[in-house]
C-alpha cells in the first residue's frame, strides 16, 4: 500500500529556515501532483505549495517569494524549503500526493516558529 512519510518539522526561531521532506513508498505506478498543505487549529487545510509531475508550481501568497518546492520523480519525494519564517507560519504541515489516481496524505509534522 501507499504511504507518505514526512520529516523536517520542529521549532524554528523567527527569521529562520527549515526544510520539509516527504517520501512516498509502496505500490506506486503513477504520481501526479505533490505538495504541502498547512492546517491551523479548528481550520481547514490550505495549500502552501504544489508541484505537478511536469514541474508546474503554485505557491500560496503567504509563502511566495520565500519558499521553494521541489520534487524528485525518480525517488517519489517532494521537499519544501521555507525562509524568513514568522509566527504566522506555525501550523501542522501535511504532505500531499496524487498516486495511482488517488489522494494520499502524510501524517503531518508540526512547525512552530518561536523565540
Describe this structure in words.
By secondary structure, this protein is mainly β. The chain has strands spanning 3-7, 10-12, 18-25, 31-39, 46-51, 57-59, 67-72, 77-82, 91-99, 102-105, 109-113. The strands form 2 sheets. Strands 2, 4, 5, 6, 9, 10 and 11 form a 7-stranded mixed β-sheet that branches. The protein is globular and about 45 Å long.
Task: Based on the model shown, name its key terms.
four-stranded antiparallel beta sheet, single chain, 115 residues
Topology:
Elements: E1 3-7, E2 10-12, E3 18-25, E4 31-39, E5 46-51, E6 57-59, E7 67-72, E8 77-82, E9 91-99, E10 102-105, E11 109-113
Parallel strand pairs: 2-11
Antiparallel strand pairs: 1-3, 3-8, 4-5, 4-9, 5-6, 7-8, 9-10, 9-11
Q: Radius of gyration in whole Å, from Cα?
A: 14 Å
Task: Please state the average pLDDT score.
Answer: 97
Which regions are unreliable across 5 or more consecutive residues at pLDDT < 50? none
| Overall form | globular
What percent of residues adopt helix (DSSP H or I)?
A: under 10%
Number of helices: 0
Strand-pairing-aware structural class: mainly beta
Q: Secondary-structure element sequence?
A: EEEEEEEEEEE
Strand fraction equals over 45%
Largest sheet composition: 7 strands, mixed
Please report the total strand number as a whole number.
Answer: 11
What gap, in angstroms, lies between the N and C termini? 40 Å
Short description:
The chain has 115 residues and is mostly beta strands. It has strands at residues 3-7, 10-12, 18-25, 31-39, 46-51, 57-59, 67-72, 77-82, 91-99, 102-105, 109-113.
Amino acid at each position: 500500500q501507499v504511504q507518505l512519510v514526512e520529516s523536517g518539522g520542529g521549532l524554528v526561531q523567527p527569521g529562520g529556515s527549515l526544510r520539509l521532506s516527504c517520501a512516498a513508498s509502496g505500490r506506486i505506478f503513477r504520481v501526479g501532483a505533490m505538495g504541502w498543505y498547512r492546517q491551523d487549529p479548528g481550520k481547514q487545510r490550505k495549500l502552501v505549495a504544489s508541484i505537478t509531475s511536469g514541474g508546474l508550481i503554485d505557491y500560496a501568497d503567504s509563502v511566495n517569494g520565500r519558499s521553494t518546492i521541489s520534487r524528485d520523480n525518480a525517488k517519489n519525494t517532494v521537499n519544501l524549503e521555507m525562509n524568513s519564517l514568522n509566527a504566522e507560519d506555525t501550523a501542522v504541515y501535511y504532505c500531499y500526493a496524487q498516486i495511482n489516481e488517488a489522494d494520499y496524505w502524510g501524517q503531518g509534522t508540526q512547525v512552530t516558529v518561536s523565540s
